[in-house]
Amino acid sequence: MEQERTPFSIHSEQNDSVIKPESKEDASPTILSKLRKKTGKIAKGLAIVGMLSTAEITDQQNPHHPTTYEQFHEQKLKKNRFLDEQSYTKLAELNPHDALEVADSYQYKPWAWKIIENTIDSLKYEALQYADKYKDIPNSKEIIKRTVTKGVEEGHVYFVLEYANSFADEPYAKEIIEKIADTNPGVVIEFANHFVTQPYAQKIVEKIATPDCSEIIKSVIIRQAKNFKDVQWGKKIIEEIAESQPRDVLLYAEELMSLPYATELIERSIKKSPSSMIRNEYTEFSDMYANGATLKILQESNDPFIQTLSKIKKIKYDDYIKENMCAMIDEIINNGLTLENAAYIAGDEKQFLEELIKIKLRPNHFGDEIVDYFLTRKSLEKVEKINRLHEETDAMRFKSIENSSPQDLYLLLVYGDEEIFTSSFNGIFNRLIERAKQTNITGIQLLEEIGYVKFRTFIRSCTEFNRFGDFLNTMTKDQQEEVLQRFIKNLDKTKDSLREAISIAEAIETTNNPEILKILAEEIKKQINNTRIDRKEIKILYKLIATTLTSKEPGDAWLKEIQKEYQIPSLIEVPSKELFNANGKNVQKYFFYDDEDGRVTFKNFLDQYKNNGEWKIKDAGTYVVISARSNNREIVIYANKPEKEYVGQEQIAKELEKQNIQTLVAVHRGHSYHAQKTIEKIPPSAKIVSLGSCGGYRNLSDVFKHAPQAHVISTKGTGTKFVNEPLLKILNEEILSGRDINWSDFWKKAERKIGNDKFKNYVAPNKNFGLAFIKTYKQALDKEILHQ
Fold it and tell me: Which among 414, 537, 389, 415 is positioned nearest to 471, based on CA atoms?
């Protein structure tokens, strides 16, 4: 349980007294910052010492009065520019870098051309840095191409792109850079300034720089934003990425100042992530985080939110308290809350949560993002505590919300949504309905009082846990219809229309009530017809939502037409017929890795099938084949031995290719740092993928790129063999039975059988519907743009 913090009195920066000594964690950044600042100087000093120590002192140099590095280097260059053939040959053998650095002095001497070419070959990719020195010798274009190709083949893509301006305008450049972009997209962005002006470059970079690219690439895009200021799409993509990466904007604010819209971008990022300006890690790195650009804006901005943040920042106070105070800026600005009182509230968990809820219910309040952040964090903490007490009595388990209002309980459900499981949801929801009855509040009144905050999330959760009918029963028929219509309409007026559309589609996926579905279908059709022609992305979202109705309303002609155009793969269940090849085999590949965990896991895996009459185990040297038959169905599992990680996986792939057999189930068995190696080998034919490693949920988008139709079992927290082994065995028994795999039913069955507390960390495939929706939406949007 988090330790309760006691607020202290506030002191200004002018007061020399120290409120609270820095913790070791707080002190670390200061030490690191000093080291960072000194590293460059030390490295340069060592380089100079090394150069001078190896330099030959000529008669003209006085050893008692050494020259500076720059003077020495200039003298050396001057001497090397006037060598005869023998001396230049010797220089190239002993110091190839020095020989190429002066190659431009020998470009008109035929005897030097072969020497230069041989020197380039000896340096391989490193020779690219001197390309401007030998670009005029005969065959230089072919030599540079050879050097670039070697560099890419040997994996030195950083070096190749750093000197891309030496070949960027050549016909082969596009293919080279595209090849690098496939495996190292971040490096392409990092050095885009060396080729971004080329006609082909924009498409390569634009393909990488999208709002759904990885966070690492987003960070690089922000850092290199100045390289895209003259590119047509530059501002749009940078602003979109800045929405999810505000801290990177503040980190690289100095570099961004060359952009005409930099001040606006930085101000918006400060408001989205005010804690970045509070924490020691962001204020003590004066050369990195608290740079001149952000501090100047913080001091000079006319925005009332930023002005108030500036006052909070100047207070000498515990960072935890100051962070919480950021969420109450609206109260400070609009309702006269003093900094002193804000600090006391910030230090009291109960009061702070009550204050957050009060602010959230106020329309158009300042700092909505930071309020949402804290509501989410506090709600997840509370839900997690309720989850942990699942074996206690209801009175003990839900004691913390015993006196909560319907509004409080509603916010707990929608902001704690990511961690909640069935019994926790039902317990909180039951109390919400009970309190609503006690206070004579109907469902629609509750939504109105709460300002319809995240109401699509609430409805989606209600349908998922089969409680939507109970919520609707608190209203009249007219009110029910009004809520259902509002659930569908006005996507174009939301801040994140894609996220809201996913909630709608997920709710429809789990709804079977024909009356509700009819109202939803009519409203969806109306929205498709009424959406403005210039809002194509909204129309696509509504059409994709409509596709979730096709299995429930198969007779509607308009739905059939939409289904021809768009189709989201259903993740509710996997039909049994899709899990077997034409010859009645369900082929599975298990990937094990050569470490201690891999060996232990492999033994446990085999133990599940040993001494079981239904299953046969065959040792194939570098891998094992486990099989079982039932009627005309057969499961065949190929699993490499962990100590034969590479050769085993390769031989399995060759064997399946030789038999022309498609893999239908792929299973990752190993730590999370091995996950990408497995994902790269997942075939497009896979219908089920299991990522049992810690945090497997983070890799879902990568899985969908390789296997678009895959249903993915993943983890949000820690994966464990005590869940993985029995879960996969239960899954195989279900597959072999010939029954369709309905994930909701299967998950309940597995939870009962496994009974391990860690099972709550595992995410069923039907909970991953959002990713399938996003992928289909992106494809549809790209297709629409292509045909414009």
Answer: 414
CB count within 10 Å of CB 403 equals 8
Confidence of residue 718 (pLDDT cuts 50, 70, 90): low
What is the C-alpha to C-alpha distance for residues 392 and 396, in angstroms, rounded to an integer? Answer: 6
Q: CA torsion angle for 627, 629, 634, 636 (degrees, to 10)?
A: 0
C-alpha span between 153 and 597 (Å, rounded): 33
Quote the pLDDT of residue 202: 79
- Residue 703 tokens read as 């899985």
What tokens were used for 456? 């699509």
Token readout for 61 is 């140099």
Q: Which residues contact residue 37 at a Cβ distance below 8 angstroms, ignoring those fewer than 6 apart?
A: 287
pLDDT greater than 60 at residue 288 = no
What confidence tier does 477 reach under pLDDT thresholds 50, 70, 90? very high
Closest alpha carbon to 719 in 691, 747, 698, 754: 691
Q: Tokens 């909640």: give the residue.
A: 420
Residue with tokens 């994709």: 544
Long-range CB contacts (within 8 A, 24+) of 233-239: 233/202, 233/206, 235/259, 235/261, 237/206, 237/209, 237/210, 237/211, 238/265, 239/265
Q: Is the pLDDT confidence value at 44 over 60?
A: no
The confidence score (pLDDT) of residue 409 equals 95
Q: At 407, list the tokens.
A: 């509004």
Could you tell me if 755 and 390 are in contact, meaning their C-beta atoms sit under 8 angstroms apart?
no
Length of the chain: 788
Average of per-residue pLDDT across 530-534: 82
DSSP state, 316? B
* Mean of all residue pLDDT scores within the chain: 81
What is the sign of the dihedral through the CA atoms of 378, 382, 385 and 387?
A: negative
Chain position carrying tokens 């075939």: 683
d(CA 387, CA 398): 10
